[in-house]
Structure formats: C-alpha cells, structure tokens
Design brief:
The chain is of the alpha/beta class. 28% of the residues lie in helices and 15% in strands. It contains two helices and four strands. The protein has a four-stranded parallel β-sheet, with helices on one face. Helix 2 links the parallel strand 3 and strand 4. Helix 1 packs parallel to helix 2. The longest helix is centred in the middle third of the chain and has 15 residues. It is globular, with a radius of gyration of 14 Å. The chain starts with 8 loop residues before the first strand and ends with a strand. The mean pLDDT is 81.
C-alpha cells in the first residue's frame, strides 16, 4: 500500500498487511480525562511505547470534541488555548502523529 501512496492508521500492529502506523498508549477511557491529565497519560504512553518502535510508527488521539464523556473539560477545542498548544507541541516534537478527532481544527 505504501508503494501506492496509501498510508493506513490502524488500532493494531498489522505492518505486514499494509498498515503504516499503529496506536500508541491507546486507551479509550483516557480521552474522558481532563485535558492536562490526558496529556500526562499520553506522554507516559509515548515514553513506554518508544522503547518498542520508532516515533513515526505510531499515532495518538487529540479529542477536539467530546469522545467518551468528560464534557468540555476533556476536549481540546475550548477556551484553554495553552492546553491545545501544549498537545500540539508534545506530539510534534516527539515525532508521534497526532490524529485530531473532531469536525474542525
């Protein structure tokens, strides 16, 4: 698939079947945590997963809208611009792809 210019983000490690990236530190309930707790858990997940693979082999969610609860305190598309900038910088500087989940950026 990569030779055709198609890159697939999968929840599991199917690299031999055409997947390009797999989730890192993926825990659906994590996205219901308040923003700063989510960032801390994500950072710890990256730290652990980067022992097994290179940063470009993984991706993590940044919930712009409510995902599994948590309300406005758990979303990054809110008045807390500092948390959004921190999330953006955390993923960009680590080399891990951030998948921004929501209707707008």
């Amino acid at each position: 698939l990569v030779s055709e210019g198609v890159y697939v983000h999968t929840p599991d490690r199917y690299f031999y079947y055409g997947a390009s990236k797999s989730g890192m530190g993926y825990d659906e309930q994590q996205y219901s945590l308040p923003r700063w707790e989510d960032l801390s858990v994500s950072r710890a997940g990256m730290y652990d997963d980067l022992y097994e693979r290179t940063p470009t082999m993984g991706w993590m969610f940044v919930p712009l809208v409510e995902y599994h609860g948590g309300g406005a305190a758990a979303t990054f598309l809110s008045d807390d611009r500092e948390a959004f900038e921190w999330a953006f910088a955390q993923y960009l500087t680590s080399g891990v792809m951030a998948c921004f989940r929501g209707p707008v950026l």
